[in-house]
Amino acid sequence: MFNLPQQPQSIGDVLSNGFRLYCVGFKKIIVLLLVSSFFATLPEVLADFLEIDIIDVTSDTIRWTPSHFLIIILYILSMLVSFVIYSAIAIQFWGIIHSNTPSIKASLKRGLVCLAPILFASILYGLAVMFGLVLLIVPGIMLSIYLLFYGYFILFEHDGIIASLKHSYQLVRGHWWETAIIQTVISIIMMVVFVVLFVVFIFVDPTIMDFSEEGTHELTGVTLLLSLLLYITLDLSVSLITAIVLVLFYDLKMRKTDDGLQPSLEKLS
Length: 269
Hints:
Elements: H1 11-49, H2 66-97, H3 104-113, H4 115-136, H5 138-146, H6 150-157, H7 161-172, H8 176-204, H9 221-256
């Protein structure tokens, strides 16, 4: 059984407990991760089948066809599917923390219900951070940390769009530096993953960085497999980060209130 301490955790404890949560929940989320990777790879497979260069879509000589728009729509759909799946993964982890894990079906259903609010909140989050960066850079960085948890307030607390951003700010207030340090560690993890994957891709297929008109970007069997492995690796990394952020979310809620720890999962079971 997975248990988190009932007292405030150090930064190291949050990171290690996030990794423990990830390991405990891995069997529950592996199918969701594979489905997410499959949908992420699907547009590339279809583009190759239709012989569409998905990299050179901005060329002046390109002739837009219905197939191009089909690929774009498929990319958008794959993104929406990822939103729902990662919401379901977060619900699974949150349920493990509270020993009240809903079914995968119920988690996906909740993720689908919250899709529109999370998307709109994400747009507002992005605009707020962008506006802060344009002003003096520092406000944008601060807002990116203060408003970090809006999605979890929508998923677990049934907050509205504005309320989720407001409650995230209130949750982080007074603990900005701890949250920022953990977010920095998370960013470093993602940077390392991207660099490693980039090096592997270049080593296996050096032509992938050839953006000249003579360059080709067709998916061979090897590059298709690498593309799938890329998305699987990214999904594994993002799910680990989700687990860490949820442990931080739990810790901050415990610091703020004694009665705010129970997630709204009863209707999901």
